[in-house]
Amino acid sequence: MLKNTFCHIPGVSCRLEEQLWTAGFRCWDAFQQQPVPLFTPARNQAATECLVESRYHLECSNPLYFCKLLPVRLHWRLFPSFRYTVAYLDIETTGLSRSGNIITTIALYDGRNIRHYVHGKNLEAFKEDIQRYQLLVTYNGKGFDVPFIESCLKISMPQAHIDLMHLLRSLGFKGGLKGCEKQLGLERGGLEGVDGYFAVLLWRDYQDNGNVKALETLLAYNIEDVVNLETLMIAAYNLKLEETPFSDIHTLPIPVRPEIPFTADSATIERLRMCYS
User: Fold this and answer.
1) Residue 97 has pLDDT above 90, yes or no
2) What is the 3-state composition of the chain as percent helix, strand, coil, each rounded to the nearest 5?
3) Are 103 and 89 spatial neighbours (Cβ–Cβ below 8 Å)?
4) Checking CA distances to 191, which of 1, 42, 150, 221 falls within 20 to 30 Å?
5) Phi, psi of 11 (to 5 degrees)
6) CA–CA separation, 274 vs 277, rounded Å?
């Protein structure tokens, strides 16, 4: 979809982009091979130079270039071109405020491998690992996860970023991450009903009582979030494609779910529900 995009060119609006598509200029190649200039000579030259630069940044795996030029509502178009360098990211914390709270766990999934990080164990390793990726996909990560990580771990995360909360809302899906999952047909099995508040209880149980099953349940919950982010990203991408002339050629298949390395402990979940209900 990125090579069908023109509205990152200065002066090209989404409406003009649609007019270009209708006129038969459906990709960068078609524009650059135009037999008769579409714009004034100066504007045509500027557009051509922008597309040459765009090809360079695409080949150099630099999604941030496009992220800065495209309207936020169109950042979904970055996904297929940079899918191989994406990190699906989610954190769990002891509270919403960055003041006085900590990150308990971080889950990271890149479509191939699952990584997890635990406070007091290997949380610092995240600093180096996240540098491998050029594109982040989160749910409300721009408002919560990334600022929390940057504050807690004292790092900068300048990567291009697709926040699914805003993307899914533009498609009519609301109700938080879990609500969007349900509306798109995703089930959580033994983790049904577990939420961010319950994740805090799991961490407390692990810290106060040494219950390793509570930590494993927390990690299963955290990892479930990032694995589902991939499915939500692709579902949202395909739905957005339907608003363009390209859904017949760019639609992506829903991926096979990876095996999650932790299992939620039903006894721990039930005990905590009884204690805090």
Assistant:
1) no
2) 55, 10, 35
3) no
4) 150
5) 90, -5
6) 5
DSSP conformational letter for 253:
P
- Phi first, then psi: what are they for 118, rounded to 5°? -125, 135
Q: Cα dist. 182→177, 185, 188, 194, 232 in Å?
A: 9, 5, 9, 14, 11
CA distances to 27, 201, 210 from 194, rounded to whole Å, are 45, 10, 20
Can you list the alpha helix ranges (DSSP code H) found in the chain?
A: 14-22, 28-32, 41-59, 63-69, 125-129, 146-153, 164-170, 176-183, 196-209, 212-241, 247-250, 266-276
- 157-201 per-position pLDDT tens digit: 999 999 999 999 999 999 899 999 999 999 888 898 889 899 999
Tens of pLDDT, residues 100-152: 899 999 999 999 999 999 999 999 999 999 999 999 999 999 999 999 999 99
Overall fold of domain 2-60: DNA polymerase; domain 1 (1.10.150)
- Tell me the C-alpha to C-alpha distance, in Å, between residue 118 and each of 93, 159, 202, 220: 11, 23, 13, 12
**H or E stretch at 100:** none
Give me the half-sphere count of Cα atoms (radius 13 Å) on the Cβ side of residue 192.
6
CB 231 within 8 A of CB 180: no
CATH 3.30.420.10 region(s) of the chain? 80-276
Q: Which CATH class is domain 80-276?
A: alpha beta
Please state the pTM of the whole predicted model: 0.94
Q: Quickly tell me which residue has 């994406």 as its tokens.
A: 86
